[in-house]
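Progress report, Aim 2. The chain analyzed during this reporting quarter is listed below.
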Amino acid sequence: LQVLLIFAKEDSQSDGFWWACDRAGYRCNIARTPESALECFLDKHQEIIVIDHRNSRYFDAEDICRSLRATKPSEHTVILAVVPRTSSDQEETSVLPLLHAGFDRRFMENSSITACYNELIQIEHGEVRSQFKLRACNAVFTALDHCQEAVEITSEDHVIQYVNPAFERMMGYHKGELIGKELTELPKSDKNHADLLDTINTFIKKGKEWQGVYYARRKSGDSIQQHVKITPVVGQGGKIRHFVSLKRLRCTNENNKQLYKSHHDEKYSVDNSQSESHSFRCKNRRKDSIDVKSITSQSSDAPSLQTRRYSSMARIHSMTIEAPITKVINIINAAQENSPITVAEALDRVLEILRTTELYSPQLGTKDEDPHTSDLVGGLMTDGLRRLSGNEYVFSKNMNLSHSHLSVPITINDVPPCITQLLDNEESWDFNIFELEAVTNKRPLIYLGLKVFARFGVAEFLNCSEATLRAWLQLIEANYHSSNSYHNSTHAADVLHATAFFLGKERVKGSLDHLDEVAALIAATIHDVDHPGRTNSFLCNAGSELAVLYNDTAVLESHHTALAFQLTAKESKCNIFRNMDRTHYRTLRQAIIDMVLATEMTKHFEHVNKFVNSINKPMASEENSSHSEGSDCECTAHTKNFPDNQTLIKRMMIKCADVANPCRPLELCIEWAGRISEEYFAQTDEEKRQGLPVVMPVFDRNTCSIPKSQISFIDYFITDMFDAWDAFAHLPVLMQHLANNYKHWKTLDELKCKSLRLPSENN
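Predicted structure tokens for the chain:
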């Protein structure tokens, strides 16, 4: 709120208003002359003006008021006259001269700050707020005039006071024919139920909103069916002052024909008919239920075309092979038919969403809003930007890699004591995988794998010897690239550890079979085998052999699974599946493939949302029901023990295990953040060297803020997913680590620190 004080001289009264404005939080300007007052007002458009009317020696207050009132901005301004205090023996003067001059109020001279403050506050809460509402009226009526819904406003006695152009077009009347008439004077349709009007009046007289379907009669005499919502507007004293009716055509063939007919019958000019024909034709927003007859040729020489079109559409509607989404859309269409207008509109928005291709991917803002998130999404959730011919990228791999030179324990009991001591803690979430990496000379996967697989009885389930399992683990680890800073066998061992930890949680354990557990552990072990340290987008842009082989779709994930099964089958002594019967093997193989493919990020939100909708929400509903009945039983069997739900749980488990770094203890989280950043830095360097599109520009080693990248990754990918997984598996330790680590990155970011730690912590 802005106040203009017009006082020729500074005195206690002007000071009183100045300090009153300060107390009220108003912006205040002071003018000393009529000219400066007018100039200031035209510049600032103050809502309150206080003019000194106590002495005419310096200026004429009424002349100033008239000059201000002559300007357009003053229409919504309150002008206050400060008049001299009268003595008790003087007669009270009339306020009419002040009102005629343009003043709104009179203030008897009083230099008390509190008195001035009270006056200004009263003006704000009275006249100024009313003026604000009046000022908004032009905008409101502009909106109503351009609104596509027909709007009718009546008084409490049902006298029409306003209709908008959409109402005129719908009903065929001009507003001049309606304003001032009672609703009872207008002709009614005989298609409504006899008691419908009584029902409507009963609702709205009680101050309740009514909505439903109503037949109205147009000026031409035709009846049209409308969705109608009538809202009572309560005014001063709690009394109903107006009724606002919103009306929208129900898109029926009958309405279409009547409006089409009336549009051609009424005598509009060519320009008018061109501009308004679109409004007169009722668009059918539910395209699936369109009447084919209405879109065929109207000429009599095309009956065969009309028949053919109708026949084709009839066959489509009678199809017996319906996809689930088609059934859903048909159910929604049917529900719309007898729904109130607000529900029908909401269902229309639902249909629009269901018809999109990316149902599970949230919409990102512009790249400028959050470049770190945009780059992460671009790098992790797309399969490349464009193919560049002549830039072939082939990473080295050797499927015949000899591993006879590696020193491997003969049995799990032959593991060196230093490693055994570390592995004693492997069931703890805070297990330090980097210490195991150090003591095993960068071969943690085989040692951790032997321990974890023994704990879950993997060899027994596969009916293979421990020696075969040991040889297989050795072979898989040998095909991880130790030169990668992140995607190496230490990462695989870390994911295996997280998977085993999750499998130990009661609710997970109670939801999966032994085959599921074995599949999860094998999938975790192989999920990144032969990873080149580059993203799918990079491989697609570089035109790599693998991108061509897998058609730019889930390139690395497809390669990891295919190579793992190829390596396993190549040598009998490494084939952990050779003693399984065919049925069990195929079931196990499909489960492993499904879990590894789930680590591909383009379907991240699909997997998370399906888990929430199919597991979390039904489980929460059942738990609430069981609590209300006084039962403490676990609600796992009905909600989760179905193949589809088991698949969702396994996918979610390996996804969380794969990106659990932000949920590890801070020191481990920091180490992983440094390693993945280095791998992305190396990719950006290579993209620049080869002239490839830079997939993640923020990962430039010279400018990147690692804290920002971690914050974006946690905000966009981690938080929602782990909230959902925690709601199912109950993981308080992980969630506490996540909160602490996020706080760490936030602190670094607020201090503009781009490194992993504060400078004081680097030692």
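The longest helix spans residues 113-146. Residues 263-320, 384-406 have pLDDT under 50 and may be disordered. These observations will guide the mutagenesis work planned for the next reporting period.
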